[in-house]
Predict the 3D structure of the following.
Amino acid sequence: MDLQDLKAILAQYKDGAVSLDEVILQFKQSPFDDLDFAKIDHHRGIRQGISEVIYGEGKTDEHILAICQNMLSNQQKNILITRISQSTADYIAAHIPVDYHPIARLGIVGKIPEPTGKGKIIIATGGTSDHRVAEEAALTAEMLGNEVVRLYDVGVSGIHRLLAHMDVIMEAKVIVAIAGMEGALPTVIGGLADCPVIGVPTSVGYGTNLGGVTALLSMLNSCASGVSVVNIDNGFGGGYLASMINHN
């Protein structure tokens, strides 16, 4: 159940379509289901406005499927599953429809909803090698009801590529800037844009990139105001935070 479901139930009660007892029954249902291996939080959508997302890495195919089936049986219409392989997606698809995005390693049960955010979210990358993290961020934001504009391969080594899109940058409500190597992109964008910038460091780079630590520290030490940073390769976290900003 999410906020829209809650509003619909209350509207039906107001119109006399359902009884008070039926409304109470909806709220009496357990806020979570205990599947032994997982406790599914069905009231997260009411508390936070966004239903629970499944982090697939480390879970068995059977566990992911069982969680999806439980969510669907509790009226969660759209389900986002991050960090899954093609074989896991195939296993799920044998039981319920799932749309798999191999670059992002992300599965969607249901469909991407129409945008409900206040503006546009830009997903920008330093290079094509950041594509997988960027697509995780972009699809997460779209799944959470946002209009997303992709600006890929606009890193600082060819800054004219970024400056060519100043009109798009100035229209953004929030920008997710994704980069490996030295991680300078969020700072540059933060010095150009008048909206919040979320830096996502990636593990892309040679030796002293240190698996993304160099980019992470660079972003954390940004001299541009309004730049926040999520963890290394955390496209989901960047897209999720951008959605929260765009809906408030």
User: Anything to note?
Assistant: Residues 1-30 form one domain. The mean pLDDT is 93. The chain has three domains: 1-30, 31-109, 121-247. The chain has eleven helices and eleven strands.
